[in-house]
Write a structure and sequence with these properties.
This protein is of the alpha/beta class and 297 residues long. It has 12 helices and 15 strands.
Length: 297
């Protein structure tokens, strides 16, 4: 199978690239520069130099693929428009029987979820994700006889040296962890390699379409995660709980997302045979801290 992948050098995209290569698929991965091209090539992918905002740089590669997997995410004010440009380009490709599009969203579109929320739950997006529901809807509506469309909503990703949980390891190593709010909120989490497996399962199953949550269902509280990570730091870090009002002044809507309490379930991913190999950050803190340290070298 030939895959066109966006974000192949990113946190999620690199794990997805690895998973498709391990499964024996050809992956053309969009990258912005030669340094990222070398990273993709070292992982077994085939770099395509270009930019999401310039469709001419990648339209041919997308058209040659059996499926498009979109994991790239541009932070900042132009992010929604760049994302829309990618959808404009992919959804305008000539029809090819069996082609698919896997679009990456996130669980923050659900908003507060103190009771279990699966893929049928109503959307109540946080401000930081307020533009994503419209793009999700567009992807789902685009499905037709020649195009199968799916949406993956990852939990907060952990593993390696990047991401939100990676920042907690970094803070622990620097002896001060800041927790937004009380820390009693629960984060829906997913190990990067387990998340990547969801994409491969969707791609390889011709009947897989619609929305798929991807989280380990560990329902871990932030305070418990921080406590477990702290035990494996070289020196015990201080922990400061930052009031949400104070955090908003520095972090904007990102603060509210970090303080969100969510219990998320992934029955549709599990129906594909997906079973995450890791189901806890706190229970694997020593291993994950070592992964983080390796990523710093």
């Amino acid at each position: 199978m030939r895959i066109f992948l966006t974000g192949g050098s990113g946190y999620v995209g690199a794990a997805v690239l690895d998973a498709f290569v391990r499964a024996g698929h050809h992956v053309d991965a969009l990258v912005r520069n030669s340094e990222k091209a070398a990273q993709v090539q070292a992982r077994g992918g085939h770099p395509v130099l270009g930019d999401l905002s310039t469709p001419a740089s990648y339209a041919d590669a997308a058209a040659a693929a059996n499926g498009v997997v979109h994991t790239a995410f541009e932070f900042g004010p132009r992010g929604p428009q760049v994302d829309a440009t990618l959808l404009d380009t992919v959804l305008a490709l000539p029809p090819v029987l069996g082609r698919f599009l896997i679009y990456t969203s996130g669980v923050w579109v659900l908003g507060p979820a103190p009771t279990p929320a699966d893929e049928t739950a109503a959307i109540n997006a946080m401000e930081i994700s307020s533009w994503l529901p419209a793009h999700e809807s567009r992807v789902l509506r685009a499905a037709h006889g020649y195009l199968r469309t799916s949406i993956v909503r990852p939990g907060i990703v952990y593993g390696g040296s990047r991401g939100i949980v990676g920042d907690v390891f970094k803070d622990a190593a620097n002896s001060l962890i800041r927790v937004i709010g009380t820390g009693e909120n629960r984060w829906p989490l997913v190990y990067d390699r387990d998340l990547a497996d969801v994409y491969v399962r969707i791609a390889e199953n011709p009947d897989a379409s619609g929305i798929f949550h991807a989280n380990d269902e560990g329902d871990e509280r932030v305070n418990d995660i921080v406590s477990a990570i702290s035990e494996h730091a070289k020196t015990t870090p201080s922990v400061r709980h930052v009031p949400i009002v104070e955090a908003r002044k520095k972090m904007g809507p990102y603060a509210d997302a970090l303080a969100l309490d969510q219990v998320v379930r992934s029955p549709r991913a599990r129906a594909l045979g997906w079973n995450p190999s890791l189901k806890s950050v706190a229970g694997n803190a020593a291993r994950l801290f070592e992964e983080w340290r390796r990523g710093q070298r």
